[in-house]
protein acetyllysine N-acetyltransferase (Vagococcus acidifermentans), 231 residues
Amino acid sequence: MSDVEKARQLIHEAEVLTVLTGAGVSTPSGIPDYRSLTGVYHGLENPEYLLSHTCLMTEPDKFYNFNKSLYHPEAEPNVIHRKLKQLEADKTVNIITQNIDQLHHKAGSTNVVDFHGNLYDCYCTSCGASVPVEEYLESYWHHECGGLVRPNVVLYEEGLSQEAISRSVQMMTEAELVMIAGTSFQVVPFSTLIQYKRPDVPVVVVNREPIYLFEPHLMVTGSAEDFFEKL
């Protein structure tokens, strides 16, 4: 039996599947990653600053102009998102995603933790009101109170949501199989979630390049899109 066949068998047998997803799950939908030669960071001298709390508060124009480039409202869920939703028909599928593009939600997945937040969830930093993303993409000033509007994503210099952390840990502890898909799994603390799985729970990794993981795992090298097409 090939590694691909073993991975598929493990997925089909597990009653509780927890999936950790990264940029490689969204690139087939036309959303660029961050650090590749075609990614949004390419050619920028200090991209982390443009997505920092300091930039938001001190140079909101600069933050806003860069932040708007991250939006792809026309993007639709691809076969990976759709297959994960379909798997809910006969098992619990928990998804913890680094992605901020809401495509898992668009596909209809029930149990999703946006570990780094969601670009399409915007709010006013002054009055706290929720602001439709369409309004934010027209102006970052709240038309009702004049406050600064921002997306509810975790910027550099900011802490993660405690709710996202606690829900993610719970999803890891209840998993019968952990799958890591479309990520190099190097971003901390996202990558540290693996330590919360039970010791006997297997791990399947689907990624274009092998990842560095202390845990024993079944590595399927290739695109997540190809893997899920045949799942």
Summary: Strands lie at 16-21, 92-97, 111-114, 117-124, 130-131, 149-153, 177-181, 203-207, 218-221. The chain has a mean pLDDT of 94. DSSP finds ten helices and nine strands in the chain. The radius of gyration is 18 Å.
